[in-house]
Amino acid sequence: MSHVNPLLCTEEGLAAYILCITEGQGSILDTLTIGMAAFDPSTGEMIYDMFEDGANRNELERRLEHLNPTEVIVAENVSANTLKLLQHRFIFIRRQPNEIFDFTSCLVKVAAFFSSEGTISSANFQNLGDFAPTTLCCIGVLLHYVKECGLESSLKAEGLLHHWISQPLRNLVKVRQRQDMVEELIGSESGLMEELLNVLEGLPDLERGLTTILNLKCKPLGFYVVVTSLGNVCSKLQSLLNSDTERQSDHTRQLIMETVQLLSNVGLFANNLDKEAVRKEDKANLLIDKSEFPTLVNRQMKVSSLFSQLEALKPSIAIVIGSERFEYTSVGGHDFLIEVKITLPVPSTWRLVSQTKQFNRFRSPAVDALVTELIQLQEILVCDGEEVWLHTLEHFNNFYFPHKRAVKNLATLDVLQSLSELSRQNEYCKLVYRAVLSSSLVGLQSSEQCCMTVSGPNMGGKSCYLRQVALIVIMAHIGSFVPAKSATISLLDAVYVRMGARDELFTGRSTLLLELEEAQVILNCATQHSLVLMDELGRGTSSCDGAAIATATLHHLVKCLTLFVSHYPSVTQLTKLLFPSARNYHVAFMVKPEDDDDGKAVTLLYSVVEGLANESFGLNVARLANIRTDVLSRASHYTDILQSQPESTSILSIILITCLYYLTLASSTLMYAYTFPDNFIPNPVSPDDS
Question: Which residues form the signal peptide (predicted)?
């Protein structure tokens, strides 16, 4: 969203959420119902959620990763697993007494907050019926905490694009509406994209500004920037509507018309602001039309009268001090001073205010009386100006929700314009959606096929292919065009990804445990309308156990739209049994023998084709990593040995082969208890290599 001018934002910085978490009993064994509410004290934004989570707290961790709170409020009896996760993320934890989380007291706090004039009625409680008890407890605790700490706020809106990506659409009608609007903006004959860019360019953070105004925490300049920006947007969009109606689709025109209608009253506020008073922060003179404030007008007239009277005294003062012309002097915050040389006599009734080595500064009784009255009136005017300012803000806040809706429409146009520009520059294509579970994005050719296993050389692009598919699917579900020549996809309910390898020493979880915990979530949650991407599951343990886990997992996931990357032969064999629901694919490559040694030169083609890959070419990666040649030579020899074994050869047999190979180097008279294969001939090794 490059059109936002950060210099015009009313406030800078990222959201710093205060998070409250409560726990309740889950619907099944070993699960918890977790309620949470997050509050940003700098903006006033509050979000809430309720979900079920397992013992590993995957769902909670995902939300913590998204919100990145600076402080978390929990009860004293919070579970050990939740506390361990929070401590691992180095978040400041504030543990509160369990009584504060009592549902009844929290319900009363929330009902009182939403009631008018502090009066709680039965209707207030009925309106809260849709909230889960755990969520209400979190909101009640946060309200108690905010009141206790005196935190007041304004709203910070997260980017709409971020919201679209984090919550893709599952409504085909809405997805196609967005697609149609993007397609219209891309059209080469339409200048609508450039005109929208002219409307949106240089805008401040309007949503943050609106909420700052809502909480009466903005300054006159901030109010002026927001109001004038909304007024300019309204007039430009109105001109856009009037210029050419034929090139605008129904959805685009309806969005622009709604925005103009929602902002129709902004011009009244913008045209009534005095720019010079805004610059000086003179709230008493902020409005051009003050007819609604007769008391303020009368006091300002009195102040003008006092200034005129002070000016009228200047000729008589000039006669007294023997000067042809006289002007008042202001020094050190004192105005309307009569400055004369120290040697010049003055009437005894004049009051000395200040003096220097050369000058004395006086006020005559008449001037003193007028200045005293003027100061009193000016102090009253400051209070009157504050009342006028607050009244103006409150009047403007009566239209907060229409204005907020209009700003959201502007954000929608901004996102669509950005997606259109990206699609046009990179020649993205428009997707075709179909009802059956299939996708040309992953090479599936029929409705019967929903699972593909991908094998092939290391560094061949298998993991990148998975990431590519996931990103394209998400782009498809936000209504964007996608980077492809053509694509057909069905609407999905979720995208599950298991990639990478890591451990968590602080929580005592190994790489394999983390992999399997993530796999467990996928196995429990994925449906036949989900996209599942698994990258080399089971590599953190022995080949036997890892292959067994991967094979069993794939067998369970064959109901989903699945991309399963694996080097295990058992996985590819299972795919043959599950045909036509599952098929084997591999990343394409070409092999050319090298002349200087027994190695092979592998050329990676970075494309996915149907069929099995006969090798993974891990030695080629080792060669790229500059592994010692003697180690590569041994590894190549071991590869020949292992590839000559039948698939049923056990891990113990492989270990025995390796041990006996080294024993052969030490003694040529050793009696073998294990029968080697016919092609097993140990290579001679020099003493330096041993």
Answer: none
**What is the pLDDT, as a whole number, of residue 127?**
62
Considering only CA atoms, which of 624, 573, 575, 574 is closest in space to residue 599? Answer: 624
Which CATH code fits 6-149?
Answer: 3.30.420.110
Report the pLDDT value the prediction gives residue 312, as an integer from 0 to 100.
Answer: 92
Range 161-265+399-425 classified under CATH 3.40.50.170: no
Question: Which residues sit opposite 95 in a β-bridge?
Answer: 74
pLDDT of 530 reads: 85
CATH class label, 432-624: alpha beta
Q: Are 534 and 553 in contact (CB under 8 A)?
A: yes
Hey, what CATH class is 294-392 in? Answer: mainly alpha
Contact 459, 621 (CB under 8 A): yes
| Residue 215 CB-half CA count within 13 A | 17
Residues spanned by CATH 1.10.1420.10 within the chain?
161-265+399-425, 294-392
Residue 329 bridge partners (DSSP): 337
pTM of the model: 0.65
Where does CATH 3.40.50.300 sit in the chain? 432-624
Low-confidence ranges of the chain (pLDDT < 70): 1-15, 42-44, 114-127, 129, 149-159, 188-190, 244-249, 435-449, 594-600, 643, 645-690
The residue count of the chain comes to: 690
**Based on the number of CB atoms within 10 Å of its own CB, is 578 exposed (0-12), middle (13-18) or buried (19 or more)?**
middle
Residues with Cβ within 8 Å of residue 596, at least 6 apart in sequence: none
Would you say 91 and 82 are in contact if contact means Cβ atoms under 8 Å apart?
no
Per-residue confidence (pLDDT) for residue 189, from 0 to 100: 60
Question: Rounded to 5 degrees, what are φ and ψ at 268?
Answer: -65, -40
